[in-house]
Design a protein that fits this description.
- The protein has 255 residues and is mostly helical.
- The protein has 13 helices and no strands.
- The protein is elongated and about 75 Å long.
Length: 255
């Protein structure tokens, strides 16, 4: 399974039932309510209850592609990639321009290493002019290329995602990380600096920048980055990491 492919997005979806001929409004309302409950349970990692609500929603409103898509996401969370793929393809059959379903199908395909197929699905999502968050699918495409070993195409896609949304943290962080791995520490640092101008409260970005500065022996700038993490983050893990770096850097200064 890919390391850092963008997680399936749930909260951003518009959960509205599609029109279905021959189904009463009361049935569609119940299906919509059960679909929303299924999403809530999925967000809470209560997969049995999520499946129960979503299967009932599908029975009530079988023509609704959003139910199929969320079922696919739930199957993926259960580790059943085959059923996840089947549900997502069913959603796309019902609504061929369903960008979210294409993006999520790409993620499922990437889970099993079908990189070329995954890239095609991501492309179908981000080329849809009605897709409100194309940077997510472009980022996922970059991740697929990176896992394939095509770092040039990956870099191009990361930069395309940032062109669409300059403050998109995952693309900033992954691009910076890849540049650093290629021995381009200065470019890696500059990438994070530019990103943080758009999202100054991105704690993981400040951690990344601090680590890069440490590797470049720019210790005073690293200290500033780690102090920024402590000032903006409430996450105990990332705060512990920043504190650890500050302790080490303080010890080195006293030598």
């Amino acid at each position: 399974m890919p390391r850092v492919l963008l997680p399936v997005v749930i909260a951003a979806l518009v959960l509205s039932s599609c029109a279905a001929f021959g189904i009463s409004e009361a049935r569609k309302r119940e299906a919509d309510a059960r679909m929303k409950m299924g999403v809530t349970y999925l967000q809470q990692d209560n997969l049995p209850m999520a499946m129960k609500e979503l299967i009932r929603a599908s029975e009530l409103d079988p023509n609704n592609p959003e139910v199929d898509m969320i079922l696919g996401m739930t199957y993926r969370a259960r580790g059943d990639g085959g059923q996840a793929e089947e549900s997502l393809r069913r959603a796309i059959d019902k609504k061929p321009d369903f960008a979210d379903a294409h993006n999520n199908l790409g993620i499922v395909l990437a889970d099993r290493g079908a990189w070329d197929e995954a890239v095609r699905e991501f492309k179908s999502a981000y080329e849809n002019v009605q897709y409100q968050t194309p940077e997510r699918a472009i980022y996922n495409s970059a991740e697929a290329y990176r896992h394939k070993g095509d770092t040039d195409r990956a870099e191009d896609q990361y930069r395309q995602a940032l062109k669409v949304n300059p403050g998109y943290g995952p693309a900033c962080k992954s691009l910076s990380s890849m540049l650093f791995e290629k021995g381009r520490a200065r470019d890696a640092a500059n990438t994070m600096v530019q990103c943080l101008q758009s999202v100054p409260n991105y704690a993981e970005g400040w951690m990344q920048l601090g680590r890069i500065y440490v590797s470049m022996r720019r210790h005073s700038e690293a200290v500033d980055a780690f102090k920024t993490v402590l000032s903006i983050s409430e996450d105990s893990d990332i705060r512990d990491q920043a504190s650890g770096y500050l302790t080490v850097l303080g010890t080195e200064r006293r030598r």
